[in-house]
Amino acid sequence: MTARILPLALLALTTPATAQETFPATLAGHAYLPALSLVAPPADAPRDAWISGKFTGATRNGVPMSVPGDTGTLHGKRLTGINLPFIGQPLQGFSGFAMNRAEDGSVYVLTDNGFGSKANSPDAMLFFSRMIPDFDSGKVEIKETVFLHDPDFKVPFRISWDGTESRYLTGADFDLESLQRVGDSIWMGDEFGPYLIEAGLDGRIKGVYPTLVADQLLKGPDTPGISATSVMGVDWTVPRSGGFEGMALQPGTGLLWALLEKPLLGADGQAEGAFLRSMAFDPARREWTGASFKFKLADGATAIGDFNFIDETRALIIERDNGEGEPSLKCAGDPMPDCFPLPAIVKHVVLIDTASVDADGFVRRIGQIDLMNIADPQGKARLTTDGGQDGRFSLPFFTIEDVMRVDDSHIMVAIDNNLPFSAGRKLNAAADNEVVLLSVPEFLAAQ
Q1: Structural domain count, the chain
Q2: What pLDDT digit, counting tens, does each position of 349-361 carry?
Q3: pTM of the full predicted structure?
């Protein structure tokens, strides 16, 4: 490891890693893609791809739109008004913005693995899209959808559609949660391996790279080769859904900084601490550099959602709890259809300084904005919020997974709506794919 590829100055700081200020945020634009937005699979995809979500129940079900979606036990099993399985592939689940835009100004956005797990997503195709939000009309235009495929057998294990000629990838192969464009390649962070995956702009897989930390291979419970007899904390140390939720491209160095969603597990099977690890990967050399830092979670936060630089050292990270819905409608007792049993509390965008890392490896948190307390003096919100307040806008969603700098005053944030399983803005309606423009000049100028 050399100074050339290690831009972090290891500074002993006198302030703790969580010391910070909360800055104001004002809603500057609001757009959304309706929840039930579907796309046809490619013509050469298996027929299996035309009905997606067949495996989300206890048994296989191929009857379209026959099973009501609900929010699951954690969120009271409230019905969301949308039924499975789908005819086609859902565009749901914005799960990462790339810092570099396409030539036409559109934003590269990733759709996650499908329906939430390796077991229930073998018919959910993996793809990224180019999208443009129109904050004047409130609509989100999908310019292109690119499906991932592996005709050159770069994936080192058997994929779900291994025997097909087209070899499209599915949510049973990878759980993709973050992406960046570097030249003519799209790099994606996966949670199953966890792996970094390189693809061309046409979706053709170029390479799959396992994760090395201090010469140790990181594995999760869904890594190929892990079995029921494998020992948690010994054979695998990345918790389920704890892989690379965020991955930032650093200007100047060209390094990819992959950030785990959850803490690693110790030999006792317990989390090593209330912090997450980020590791640097050199896409030019296609190797891990050995550089890393730790991100300390705020009290109440359980995971991160996205990670993007705004200049050569400062970066944005979304941190969140597992709640959804406005706290004003918190259930007083048992979960009911008219209340939220676990409302949203901790939904932040955090500004960090990667040039300031203390002696214990913790990156400095400069400040944050509260996504549950966004001013809306001009009434730009296009959707009403159950339990909300006039003049205040919020993002009361389980998973908020996209953030990027737009200019010196604005950032853009979007959600993963987990179709059809999340309903945060309304008690009984599936969340749309919302994209918001936030005016945060003081926040972006903070040092």
Answers
A1: 1
A2: 999 999 999 999 9
A3: 0.94
